[in-house]
User: Fold this.
Amino acid sequence: MTLSKKPYKGTRDFFPEEKRIRDYMFSKMKETAELFAYESYDGPLLEEVELYKAKSGEELINDQIYSFNDRGERFVAIRPEMTPTVARMVAQVHREVSKPIRWYSIPNLYRYERPQKGRLREHWQFNVDVFGAPEVLGELEIIQLGIKLMQSFGANSNHFEILINDRAIVDKVFKELLKCSEDECYKLYKLVDRSKKLDKEKFTTQINETTLNDEAKLIFNEYLALNSIESLKNFLTKNSIDEKSIELISLDEKLKDLGLSDYVVFDPTIVRGLDYYTGIVFEIFDKNPENRRAICGGGSYANILKIFNEPSLPGVGFGLGDVTLKDFLKTHNLLPDFSSPKVDIILTTQDETGLNSLLNLAHSLRSNGISVFTQLEPLKIKKVFTLADKKGASFAALLGTQEIQDGLVQIKNLSTKDQKEFKIDSIDEIKGYLA
Amino acid sequence: MTLSKKPYKGTRDFFPEEKRIRDYMFSKMKETAELFAYESYDGPLLEEVELYKAKSGEELINDQIYSFNDRGERFVAIRPEMTPTVARMVAQVHREVSKPIRWYSIPNLYRYERPQKGRLREHWQFNVDVFGAPEVLGELEIIQLGIKLMQSFGANSNHFEILINDRAIVDKVFKELLKCSEDECYKLYKLVDRSKKLDKEKFTTQINETTLNDEAKLIFNEYLALNSIESLKNFLTKNSIDEKSIELISLDEKLKDLGLSDYVVFDPTIVRGLDYYTGIVFEIFDKNPENRRAICGGGSYANILKIFNEPSLPGVGFGLGDVTLKDFLKTHNLLPDFSSPKVDIILTTQDETGLNSLLNLAHSLRSNGISVFTQLEPLKIKKVFTLADKKGASFAALLGTQEIQDGLVQIKNLSTKDQKEFKIDSIDEIKGYLA
Assistant:
């Protein structure tokens, strides 16, 4: 049997071009996080399964997690998400460090699922979280950071929008207006969460299958029809819900203050699953009609530290995956060309007696911080420039038979086409020419 | 039961300070690899176990690997090393790309072992490999790159040395001089590989337990006593082995040419285990008598593509782990201080009415590429500078009650102690002051 050359199902080999694309996306994440003074952290790839159970309950564990017993009978999992890890880490230090705690990471995550567009078994996810920020300000900052990240790729409000909601509103609607029990609330949450994926007819059928009475159904449909903060405000007033109890209203004002309201759209169907969110929830959504999907999801969660018996500390954060981000950038033609690497100079010799000179020159240049691609076998001049182009070189050095004899080297600036001759040991002059 | 806050056994949480140290080490790896025009790649964290079996045989698989069946009954492992992955990837593309192929990566790897100094279950490893380089030149380049990396941390020949050997010599000694069978060779390899860990007496006992006759034992001991290329050359001549058949001899000359021979020491006991190496093998070794250990191991291997039924393509590479590197840097006091993060400016208000001004100023500064730490709750002036110091800020901005009323902000240069007042909306002027 021949050994397969393919990567394991649902994972990717990052050949240099793909890796440069990934590095580019990651560098923007890092730069953006650091603009906001978020500090980088990382945790282990393996965690004990208990941690995920405590945070998410049994459902996720049984379904999608890569879990196994280690040789010491510890039941462990490859991390499917970063939040439990960051919560575990914050739980260790939150008493000693000043608030807010602002952290980011770009971990790889594993979920066992059928590979499809935008979903793979292994992906990387930019995670930013702020813990212990004053009310609304954490949410504001995290959303600003999300917008700034997208802008750093050249995207603007033509390309993406932020769909936003507040679980406090949903809770009030379900519990106070519809008078739902916990059980009914749970079912409605599930229904709302799936509403974008269901067609209208199916959705209506499913509403009709709930225990809601006619009046409640009316209110529910009215809620689902809201499409702006203005309409939400009217809805709240009409149903005697105090605006001041809703953080989303004051967040919206702060976003307006910063001129960011163009990006943000109220969406009553955003609830972010049955997850641990407790307040504002949002998704960065692609506006391209052919790629209508979430690039990122996040929100605020008050109780994550409770699983460690720690006092609650409000957290806000989001996760943004590399697979969906790359799809987004490609769809909108925002991905620069990464087909070639970059190097300062390529050194070639046209005569094998030049090899020692070439190695010595490369060594000296590198000692001066100049990146060098060495062609280790003689190369005809006409092939030098094709190779230089493929290797992304800014300059090409030629060592022909005559040059080698005379201790010289020809260096060509590949963008200006200017060419100059140097003594091969005049490193300072060569360095000046390359600068 | 309370949930544990500790990371899984043998793994680490990278809190920001530790993460900055790791980032520093990785950035030097990246810079050095790119000085030599090596391109970055990455592969999946999981590979099918077959891949490791094909490369290393059953021993490693049973002992130390994290392996399990996925839900589709594929037998997979968390990568314990990168070489099989890079070989698999090279096997996919080597026919289409120009040689040499120069690649690097910094993957995290897992081995199930008892955690101890320098050995953890999860570590990161800098991997550099060159495929298809002409004889000796790949080895030369990889060793140069290793030296350059160590130099990039401020290390020199007082701190480390490269212990080097050539499996071709070992093979000739075992097979031609000692006339060993395959089986005996295998046992001797194991013995030589362990020789540094055994005390002299135990080692002698174990030699006596071999089937070597007295003459062979004499030659074997003579070989083990070699301590320089000169002594090796004499040994080869005495035993009628042609120097030209030994790559290490010509490698040594090239290293001399480049002025690198100070770093390199011939060591007859370096064989790099029973691994897949076929030619030159080496270790970067700490010279500190209290930390005598390998920081890095590598060498050349001719046959790795054969497991994919591909024609052989010579490869040379090394792996250098983050745990041992950090120990080395600490031992020699070569690790800079990473206790604080870095940020351009910290914005503080001494009066809560200043919050909106502060948020707006932060927003404008960030839009100009300036990194900003915002203190979201009013802070007394005397506490500002302690916080600024802790956050690694270069400047601190103060918004007191009077400034807020007047639309002004005080900005202090924290290194020169110079302080200046600005209109809060004069972003260009502020930007100029911060530059």
